[in-house]
């Protein structure tokens, strides 16, 4: 391999641990291989999974050292051999990469880059794949809701929750959501939820069922199943489904509650999406962006060097959309 000067700033994790294990270093330029694209990153989206990978939690243990980051947006700097989908100068968003997006440059396969419309900022483009892909899978791949069906987004103020509210309201579902702060509840209402409650207030369970006329929800999208799953089974209607999107521990449930309601619990991982499914998702996303109902809400834009701060912030209560890092 030819000598390449150290020229690219990137966050590096050399050992798993607390946020401070992420350090900003200078690395050699990454080189795109066959079918790959070099992207100058203008913004990288921060997702909870980035923190699990950095900390080695929940069974994720990546090979060290690595640069974190799945989501990103920027401009194609160079294309490797046999790339036909994009060219140098194109604005793109990333759906993963080979080298990590918390960096000035990232190498991704051509199948991981998608055109970013001129009306969408790089920061917004860095908040598309993981949140909207996960919400899309949960709502339209795992279940087939009918317009008018009731949905509770249990944890609506974060990246996936807001994406789910936007998809579901555009599709015609009756959407309610929860958030622990007044600001979070106002945000979910502005994004299409028709009712909002505080998930830290025990009375929200009763209020939620009341909102459905006592019938219960057709779908509950659960962001913290270890805390809520057992009670979720009380608030679904007959034939209702709880979809586990997020879970940070174990949960004890009474399966008889499912029997009584022909109910179901489904879990999902975005990583299980097939290439065909992802193509469908990106087309839906393109339509959502052009019609304007897909619109990430950005809470904070921080310099790349503050990646440790971003990882602390995303674990704090009071989510308000996305945190983005800029090189
Ligand atoms: P995020 O932006 O950090 O948002 C977290 C959300 O959880 C906020 O709305 C937060 O509300 C809410 N929450 C906190 N405590 C809650 C409680 N007791 N009950 C209900 N909701 C509560 O994270 P995200 O990107 O939206 O992701 C949400 C979860 O899904 C995370 O656990 C993440 O790891 C997981 N996830 C899974 C997949 C997958 O493939 N399965 C993909 C993406 C994300 P407040 O801050 O207002 O309290």
UniProtKB/TrEMBL annotation:
It is found in: Cytoplasm. Residues 17-325 form the Enoyl reductase (ER) domain. It holds the Pfam family ADH_zinc_N. The keyword Zinc does not apply. GO terms for molecular function: mRNA 3'-UTR binding; NADPH binding; quinone reductase (NADPH) activity; zinc ion binding. Its main location: cytoplasm. Keywords: Acetylation, Cytoplasm, NADP, RNA-binding. SMART domains: PKS_ER. GO terms for cellular component: cytosol. Homotetramer. This is Quinone oxidoreductase. It comes from Candidatus Methylacidithermus pantelleriae.
